Amino acid sequence: MVKLTDEMKEALHVPGKGGSVTYLCTSSLDGKPNIAAMRYTEHWGDDKVLIADMFLLKTKMNLKENPECVIAIAHPLAGGGGRYWAFKGKAIDIEYGIDPDFDWYGVKAREILDEWGDWHGKQPPEEVPPDIVYTKAAQRGVVVLHVEEIYSLKPGEVGKKIQ
To answer: Which CATH superfamily is domain 6-152 in?
Structure first.
């Protein structure tokens, strides 16, 4: 079983809370790729990554056709080192209206939506300057990635399987 480390969990917080910008990579059933930067990410337990569904269009269509996806972090840190990982697995978009008892790899839809259904209200973007009007976000659900493999994206180690 894959287990996210504490450092990985910390990196999955929103950027203004010390986390990293993450990229969700999906593909359609016929192999057309899509990549999208994600603002709201978090871990759930030791083997799940959560992403707020706010502006997902192609991503959502791809996940419905093909649940295989990757979440990537490439975040150099001052003083050397950095956060460089690719989390691979299957994902689903748990949307409002889904059966609350729906289970995805041990996680109930109700638990996810109750805890993370208002991500924007729970973790407002502190890093946006006060003179900039932040986009009003309407969250439609939560993408849940069940992490099955973790790879390094660190320079010199790219593609090395970590778990």
So the answer is: Electron Transport, Fmn-binding Protein; Chain A (2.30.110.10)
Distance CA 40, CA 54 (A): 9
pLDDT one-digit tens code per residue, 134-154: 555 567 888 999 999 999 999
For β-strands 48-53 and 68-76, DSSP reports them as unpaired
Where are the chain's structural domains?
6-152
CB contact set of 52 (below 8 Å; sequence gap of 6+): 38, 39, 40, 41, 116, 119, 120, 137, 139, 142, 143
Q: pLDDT of 108-136, one tens digit each? A: 998 988 888 776 666 655 665 566 555 55
DSSP conformation letters of 24-50: EEEE-TT--EEEEEES-EEEETTTEEE
